[in-house]
């Protein structure tokens, strides 16, 4: 099923610089293959490959406003939610969930059963079975702890300043006590 305003097989975004450092278009002569039971949401664009094919695997569902770059592959039964972006030559495994506005840099391999949470982006390969979050994306549990700490940074900074002030006062008292002890000797 292909919904309204989708573009399947447009030119990929392929350019190389010539000797004068001008951008030259690389011909995009490949094709797009949509396997059985694939659904493509409205306004989605799937670029054809520069050579070979871009392929969306059986049973995969692609939401509205998704960009799939040239020469990408998406495995079986994967979900690409609204506004996901795949840069060229990305390889997405089977049963992968790329939540809304997730981004994948080019030439990466995302393993089977990976979840990339909403508004996350990765610039590195992700092994199978991982749940990752953030920009740059890393393990979801670590990301949850980091964001919880981030919300308390202001409070933590105040606490550190107060502790530094108290430590300085204690050190000054110790210095005065030491001077007094030396005078008595």
Overview of this structure, please?
The structure is a single chain. The protein has 185 residues and is an alpha/beta fold. It folds into 2 domains: 7-138, Hexapeptide repeat proteins (UDP N-Acetylglucosamine Acyltransferase, domain 1); 152-184. It contains 2 helices and 20 strands. The strands form 4 sheets. Strands 5-8-11-14-17-19-20 form a 7-stranded mixed β-sheet, with helices on one face. The longest helix is centred in the last third of the chain and has 32 residues, at 153-184. It is elongated and about 95 Å long. The mean pLDDT is 94.
In short:
The protein has 2 domains: 7-138, Hexapeptide repeat proteins (UDP N-Acetylglucosamine Acyltransferase, domain 1, 3 Solenoid); 152-184. Helices cover 24% and strands 27% of the residues. The chain is built from 2 helices and 20 strands.
Coarse morphology: elongated
Main β-sheet, in a few words? 7 strands, mixed
Mean pLDDT: 94
Could you tell me the number of beta strands?
Answer: 20
- Going by helix content, strand content and strand pairing, the class is alpha/beta
CATH class of the largest domain: Mainly Beta
Order of strands in the sheet with most strands? 5-8-11-14-17-19-20
Q: How many H/I helices?
A: 2
Count of discrete domains: 2
The name of the CATH superfamily of the largest domain reads Hexapeptide repeat proteins
Low-confidence stretches: none
Could you outline the blueprint of secondary structure elements for this entry?
Layout: E1 7-10, E2 15-17, E3 23-25, E4 31-34, E5 39-40, E6 45-47, E7 53-56, E8 61-62, E9 67-68, E10 73-74, E11 79-80, E12 85-86, E13 91-92, E14 97-98, E15 103-104, E16 109-110, E17 115-116, E18 121-122, E19 131-133, E20 138-139, H1 140-151, H2 153-184
Parallel strand pairs: 1-6, 4-7, 5-8, 6-9, 7-10, 8-11, 9-12, 10-13, 11-14, 12-15, 13-16, 14-17, 15-18, 17-19
Antiparallel strand pairs: 2-3, 19-20
């Amino acid at each position: 099923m292909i919904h309204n305003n989708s573009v399947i097989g447009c030119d990929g975004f392929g350019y190389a610089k010539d000797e004068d450092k001008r951008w030259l278009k690389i011909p995009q002569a490949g094709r797009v293959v949509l396997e059985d039971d694939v659904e493509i949401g409205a306004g989605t664009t799937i670029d054809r490959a520069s050579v070979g094919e871009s392929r969306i695997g059986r049973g995969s569902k692609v939401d509205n406003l998704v960009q799939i770059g040239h020469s990408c592959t998406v495995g079986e039964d994967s979900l690409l939610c609204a506004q996901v972006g795949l840069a060229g030559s990305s390889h997405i495994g089977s049963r992968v969930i790329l939540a809304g506005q997730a981004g994948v840099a080019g030439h990466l391999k995302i393993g089977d059963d990976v979840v990339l949470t909403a508004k996350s982006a990765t610039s590195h390969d992700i092994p199978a079975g991982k749940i990752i979050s953030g920009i740059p994306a890393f393990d979801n549990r670590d990301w949850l702890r980091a964001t919880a700490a981030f919300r308390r940074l202001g409070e933590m900074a105040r606490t550190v300043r107060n502790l530094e002030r108290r430590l300085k006062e204690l050190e000054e008292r110790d210095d005065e006590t030491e001077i007094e002890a030396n005078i008595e000797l």
